[in-house]
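Structure first, sequence second, as always.
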């Protein structure tokens, strides 16, 4: 089948771009796949982070080269600036010219609705292309004016809505008939690294201490919070729980690695004046370094206030790491309690601290790697691609 994908891809950074790359790579094994991406993604003035792009051109090249060259050797083609209506018709015509049997559009915030709505309408009028929208979110962590109206209008003419969790499946039914919804799952990420010589699952690097040395972090028991830092992700909840953990386990260090979107002071004010065993790296973490953070960690904490699903959990599982997560829709179905991790009451700092302490007390009694390995068999890209 000839398939086109429209959404973020290299050189744009972040989990959704990585998802696009992983999905296209696996689809390309059996299909003719083309990625169409953005010329510009967001206006710089509205972007809360420091940079929208991956800095290393080597990594971008390496990521693109992950495509099987005998199936698809094309670079992602930039065709659309969502906030520039003058690019919308050109983008639609470019997709029409490519003439795929199926177009998969990546969607996660209402900002993209006007551009996507135009492209969908144009293609439905001028082609026979089947259109699916892969919705990472449908109800949004931040407030958007007219979001319901914009999403309904965008989804009105699509053939399928693809969702990745039970939570988003339920939300999608507010906008389209259930028959239009294809409920899948969030597959396990495959992390492309700059150095293919480095082993990726956790044990080999950790035994030699290479990752602790690379990150210049003391070799102590480590709890990891990883990823973009936004209010809904609940880092403040974790920071408030840390002193309670240190009362029982003062040797445990907390590594917080990710770029703050918003005011730094929302989090720095919660740190003690002389923080012991708290390492805060307020910066974008490239995928080439994620292996090192995963290799120093004993457990990953996901203290989100709300969630559609979590790419961070699937990255942790790809390194056979257990996860402690909030008991909220979108996360709870990703945790097999006491086997792949633990759940704590959402926004309850005492319960979070108890869960971390429980993990360390039971750490040598539970074979997390075996349970996670078994669990991962249900979340492969091969299964995902077949279900699309």
């Amino acid at each position: 089948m000839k398939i086109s994908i429209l959404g973020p891809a290299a050189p744009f950074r972040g989990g959704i771009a990585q998802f696009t790359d992983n999905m296209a790579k696996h689809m390309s094994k059996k299909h003719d796949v083309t990625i169409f991406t953005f010329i510009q993604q967001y206006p710089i003035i509205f972007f809360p982070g420091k940079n929208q792009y991956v800095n290393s051109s080597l990594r971008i090249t390496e990521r693109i080269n992950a495509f099987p060259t005998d199936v698809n050797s094309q670079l992602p083609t930039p065709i659309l600036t969502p906030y520039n209506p003058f690019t919308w018709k050109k983008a639609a015509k470019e997709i029409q010219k490519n003439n795929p049997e199926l177009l998969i559009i990546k969607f996660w915030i209402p900002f993209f609705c006007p551009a996507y709505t135009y492209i969908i309408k144009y293609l439905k009028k001028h082609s026979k292309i089947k259109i699916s929208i892969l919705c990472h979110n449908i109800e949004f962590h931040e407030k958007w004016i007219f979001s319901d109206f914009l999403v309904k209008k965008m989804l009105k003419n699509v053939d399928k809505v693809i969702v990745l969790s039970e939570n988003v499946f339920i939300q999608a039914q507010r906008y389209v008939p259930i028959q239009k919804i294809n409920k899948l799952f969030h597959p396990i990420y495959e992390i492309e690294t700059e150095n293919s010589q480095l082993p990726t699952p956790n044990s080999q690097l950790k035994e030699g201490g290479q990752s602790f040395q690379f990150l210049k972090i003391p070799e102590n028991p480590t709890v990891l919070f990883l990823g973009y830092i936004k209010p809904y992700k609940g880092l403040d909840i974790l920071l408030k729980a840390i002193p309670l953990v240190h009362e029982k386990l003062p040797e445990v260090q907390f590594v917080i690695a990710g770029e703050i979107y918003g005011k730094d002071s929302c989090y720095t004010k919660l740190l003690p004046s002389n923080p012991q065993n708290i390492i805060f790296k307020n910066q974008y973490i490239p995928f080439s370094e994620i292996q090192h953070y995963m290799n120093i960690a004993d457990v990953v904490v996901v203290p989100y206030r709300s969630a559609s699903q979590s790419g961070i959990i699937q990255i942790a599982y790809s390194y056979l790491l257990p996860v402690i997560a909030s008991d909220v829709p979108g996360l709870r179905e990703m945790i097999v309690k006491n086997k792949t991790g633990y759940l704590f009451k959402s926004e309850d700092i005492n319960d979070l601290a108890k869960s971390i302490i429980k993990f360390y007390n039971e750490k040598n009694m539970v074979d997390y790697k075996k349970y996670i390995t078994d669990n991962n068999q249900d979340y492969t890209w091969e299964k995902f691609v077949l279900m699309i």
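Margin note: Confidence is low (pLDDT under 50) at residues 56-73, 193-208.
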